[in-house]
Amino acid sequence: MKVKILAFIIFIMLTAMLGDIRAYRIYDKKGGKSDFKELLNKATDADVVLFGELHNNPINHWLQLELSKALYNKVGNRLIMGAEMFESDNSLIIDEYLKGDVKDRNFEAEARLWPNYKTDYKPLLVFARDSSIRFVATNIPRRYASLVSRDGFEGLDKLSPEAKELIAPLPVSYDPELSGYKEMLTMMEGSGHANDNLPKAQAIKDATMAHFILKNLKSGDIFIHFHGTYHSDDFQGIMWYLLQQKPDLKILTISSTEQDETDELEEEYKGKADYIIVTPSSLTKTH
Length: 287
Known about the structure:
Blueprint: H1 2-19, E1 25-28, E2 33-34, H2 36-44, E3 48-53, H3 58-75, E4 79-87, H4 91-99, H5 104-110, H6 117-131, E5 134-139, H7 142-151, H8 161-164, H9 179-188, H10 197-216, E6 222-228, H11 238-245, E7 251-259, E8 275-280
Parallel strand pairs: 3-6, 3-7, 4-5, 4-6, 7-8
Antiparallel strand pairs: 1-2, 1-8
């Protein structure tokens, strides 16, 4: 009788579990099902973790924070954090904020922050501050990316030596045949905004983010970096620039996408990254 009752309880539990609505699933690059534990183990073995996000996806942001916390529990202050959302000329005020010298209200008033900073990126910065973790502003100042969009890489040559400290060293390597840059041009065709400098403006962002990752990465550290999926999908973007400088660097890439059904990874997303986080298309957005 006890065996039957136990079997019934197990059946009810399994039924309930199968009936749950999943907020996310994690797949490997071939489309096999994975989980957070495997992702964490792989991240712990990497030098650099490139976490590509959907900017308005709350599950992505929650997992970024949880992965950072889990890595910190494993490696302590060997963890470094950084993000596309903070530009290199804001490094000083970020350092001051992390040290506690600048209060939240002053930081938020003076730093150029994304509209969803408080909901999506502030928790990461606060965690870094409270855990005494370095947090690096890696992105190029947007005015210089706009300069490249208008004048190409040559536009950067006229910058002052002080300004050039805020970007990747010149001249910048560039491969226009990388699919990410080619697809950008294709997508913009017909809009009236397509020109050869547009992907170069994205490339200077990738190159600058890679530059500041390497500049702050020491042997034995793990650098987790947050950015839009575009900047590391297909093992390109930031990863391409990192490997130009350090071919033996161990890099783990994470991509993010949304699907109507999350039980299987759709074919078009296979191979996008080492791990792909899938959330429901109906998920509430942060902005």
